[in-house]
Design goal:
Blueprint lengths: L11 E6 L2 H12 L5 E4 L2 E6 L2 E7 L8 E5 L3 H10 L5 E2 L6 E7 L5 E7 L1
Parallel strand pairs: 1-4, 5-8
Antiparallel strand pairs: 2-3, 3-4, 6-7, 7-8
């Protein structure tokens, strides 16, 4: 094994979708704002600092994606998500971390985590 280390400048998370327009509506509601960019046909993306979430038109892979989002305030995030009409499975009271789980329209799993 060599000492070479891959010089990574960013990592992008991509979620596959069978219906990009429907998924874009969902992720717009989740984020609380429209996509920041559409760099090419079949791709919408949201930026949070160095993190980028891409939603890509890929029906063959739709439903198998996993995204974990770390949050500073789970209660506020869940309340905001529910206020925008999205369902999220959350129970208050975890000792080490609070976790909420929700599927997107294709069945990709979005996990929200607040470390304690």
């Amino acid at each position: 094994m060599s000492d070479f280390q891959l010089p990574i400048s960013a990592v992008l998370a991509a979620v596959p979708s069978a219906d990009l327009a429907r998924s874009e509506q969902f992720y717009t509601a989740l984020a609380g704002r429209p996509a920041d960019e559409r760099p090419k046909p079949g791709l919408a993306q949201w930026r949070w600092g160095d993190f980028v979430l891409q939603v890509v038109d890929d029906a063959g892979r739709a439903g198998g994606g996993l995204v974990t989002v770390l949050l500073p305030d789970m209660a506020a995030a869940v309340a905001g998500i529910r206020d925008r009409g999205l369902a999220v499975d959350f129970e208050e009271g975890a000792v080490v971390a609070q976790v909420a789980v929700m599927p997107d329209p294709d069945g990709n799993q979005i996990t929200l985590v607040e470390a304690r």
